[in-house]
Amino acid sequence: MVGYGSMEETSPLLERRQVERQREPSWAAPACCGPNGVFSRVTALLLMSLVGFGAFFCFDNPGALQTEIKDVLNITTSQFASLYAWYSWPNVFLPVIGGFLIDRVFGVRLGTVIFALFILAGQILLSIGGFLNWLWFMDLARFIFGIGGESLNMALNTYTVSWFKGKELNMVFGFQLSIARVGSTVNFLVMEPLFHHIKTNYEEHSALGWTLLIACSFAAMSFICSLLLGWMDRRRERVILSNVNLCGETENVKFSDIKNFPATFWFLCICTMA
Questions:
Q1: C-alpha angle 166/180/151, rounded to 5°?
Q2: ∠ at Cα 169 (166, 172), nearest 5°?
Q3: What are phi and psi of 29, to 5 degrees?
Q4: If you average pLDDT over residues 185-205, what whole number do you get?
Q5: How many whole angstroms separate alpha carbon 35 and alpha carbon 239?
Q6: Which range in 51-65, 81-95, 165-179 is most confidently predicted, on average pLDDT?
Q7: 85 sits in which H/E element
Q8: Are the C-beta atoms of residues 83 and 138 closer than 8 Å to each other?
Q9: pLDDT of residue 165
Q10: Of residues 151, 35, 161, 172, the one with CA closest to residue 96
Q11: Which pLDDT band holds residue 141 (cuts at 50, 70, 90)?
Q12: CA–CA separation, 234 vs 102, rounded Å?
């Protein structure tokens, strides 16, 4: 039997404490700043909302400048409506493809960045079309914008259900939608006065181009926020994987899985069509 303080003790108590102290991290982040802490989750929610804010701001640019665009381009109301039609047409089927790409190819982080980049590129091209006074070029720009538009919203929803659970989801979805609609509201408040202010120093078609180009700053904000959000999500994933030994294989996603969707899913799709 080995007694307390015996010479036969192979690991002295003081030395054992020093080893345990060395194993402890020199600094640990407060719980609120951890990957699932309040600060991290609020920051992620803010970034998600800002991505939607910039996207919705740019989406409704033509609506805020309807009279000005019709006058500058000398087009009819039906021709003006093509700016929204060219946005909508790709989104008849692209969200399905976009969802598949997020699940199987890109992942939510890269997918969000790519779709935000499409929005930024579409908005830049739209402003170029305004400078050149080419409606067909602006229609093409809106088509490119549409490639990223609805798919970006879907990617943000994927982020939301990843970062938030249970009863939080309803409030978080509502907050994101509210901030996105604030983007639309701010667009309708500022774009027309901005156009008329710029028109005092430039010709009308140049004023239209500069107005749409300034709006690109909001699309650029969405793109930057998507990068920051991806970095935060990557950091969160690394911390979680370092603390939890995850076993099991990732389930492969196939287009044929559509036939396995429950009837409630299709009823929900019909409801959203209304």
A1: 75
A2: 150
A3: -70, 145
A4: 91
A5: 7
A6: 51-65
A7: helix 77-88
A8: yes
A9: 82
A10: 151
A11: very high
A12: 15
CA angle 2, 7, 8 (to 5 degrees): 50
Q: Provide mean pLDDT across the span 213-223.
A: 94
- Look-up of token digits 């969405």: 222
95 three-class SS: helix
Assess whether pLDDT exceeds 50 at residue 203.
yes
Residue 181, SS3 per DSSP:
helix
Supply 176's token pair: 């994101």
Instruction: Quote the CA–CA distance of 155 and 184 in Å, as a whole number.
Output: 20
Predicted local distance difference test score (pLDDT) of residue 136: 94
Answer for the pair 162, 108: CB distance below 8 angstroms, yes or no: yes
Taking alpha carbons only, the member of 114, 87, 100 closest to residue 230 is 114
- Continuous segment of H or E residues that includes residue 210: helix 204-243
- Report in angstroms the alpha-carbon separations of 98 from 46, 122, 218, 219: 23, 17, 23, 19
Average pLDDT over residues 51-55: 93
What length is written for the chain?
Answer: 274
10-39: pLDDT as tens digits: 444 444 444 444 444 444 445 555 666 788
Structure tokens belonging to residue 66? 């309807």
Predicted pLDDT at 134: 92
CB-based contacts of 158, cutoff 8 Å, min separation 6: 102, 108
